[in-house]
Amino acid sequence: MTEQRHDESKLERVIRKIKRCMALSKSSNENEAATAMRQAQALMREYRLTELDVRLSDVGEAASDSVRVERRPAWDRDLSMAVAGVFGVKALRRWSWCRERSARIERAVFVGVTPAQQIALYAYEALLTRLTTARREYAAGVRAGRHRSDYSPETAANHFALAWVEAVRHKLYALVPRGEDGPADDAASSGKDLMAVEAQDKALIEQYMTSLQLGKARKRQAYELDLDAQIAGMLAGQRVELNPGLATGGDGVSLLASA
User: Fold this and answer.
1) Which contiguous run of DSSP H or E holds residue 113?
2) Contact of 79 with 131, CB cutoff 8 Å
3) pLDDT tens digits for 217-230?
4) How far apart are CA 125 and CA 131, in angstroms?
5) Structure confidence at residue 17 (pLDDT)
6) Which of 85, 163, 187, 206 has CA 20 to 30 A from 93's CA?
């Protein structure tokens, strides 16, 4: 086991060195660029690595600390998928056995090109806290008669939460830069560059996903929703204030602006 850890640590150092060489290979100095590329290729041959292997090393997972016994509710799963779509990562559902609870638990996992999966996890957990509180308050309002519903308080609150997620998804999407700001020429150029990076990241994530043994997703059954709860959830989601600093993933940036 110790020998294996040493081998993995050595390989990580080699990959970092290859990445530095590949970065230098883009130098405007032709001699420096050629030398750096030769060094990168030599290291890849020595360690039986390809450029794809090196790029795949940037793909990783980030798992949520928040767990649910058995299955997370639909609104929780929708939130993780909405966040994943905004930040260009994949949202997975992972089950494990919890000895403390003597039960099977599920948590959200994000797969992406570093640091996107970490930013997505941060956004998901911050929004999940806000959504859980908003949903609980709406359920209490139904019980107290402040909100009318033909459904049970828990069911009405679930419908509220689904609409909340959709409203926040639109706000979150608008928060993340898409290469469309600035002069027209610059916007077109940066937009194309961003599309190329997104396509490359998507391909890397898909390649990583093929190594995982994933079950087939269940198709969600259609059911009638509480219209009043949906309207309330949409309005509540639209009132959520998001901090623009989240888009950069800067340290110490709070996702939710103070109200």
Assistant:
1) strand 103-113
2) yes
3) 666 666 678 999 99
4) 10
5) 83
6) 163
Contact of 60 with 53, CB cutoff 8 Å: no
Unique residue bearing structure tokens 């689904």: 162
Q: Taking a C-beta distance cutoff of 8 angstroms, is the pair 107, 234 a contact?
A: no
CA 185 to the chain's CA centroid? 30
Are 147 and 135 spatial neighbours (Cβ–Cβ below 8 Å)?
A: no
Contacts of 101 (CB under 8 A, 6+ apart): 69
Asked whether residue 144 carries a pLDDT value surpassing 90, the answer given is yes
Contacts of residue 152, defined as CB under 8 A and 6 or more positions apart, other chains included, come to none
Of 92, 97, 99, nearest to 63 by C-alpha is 92
Say if pTM beats, i.e. exceeds, 0.90.
no
Pick from 233, 208, 206: nearest CA to 74: 233
Cβ proximity of 140 and 154 under 8 Å: no
Give residue limits of the domains in the chain.
2-56, 59-248
Token pair, residue 116, equals 């996107």
DSSP state of 162: H
Quick one: CA torsion of 19, 22, 23, 25, rounded to 10 degrees?
160
Long-range contacts of 43-52 (CB under 8 A, 24+ apart): 43/14, 43/17, 43/18, 44/18, 47/11, 47/14, 49/14, 49/15, 49/18, 51/22, 52/207
- The sheet with strand 90-98 has its strands ordered as 59-69, 103-113, 90-98
| Residues with Cβ within 8 Å of residue 193, at least 6 apart in sequence | 179
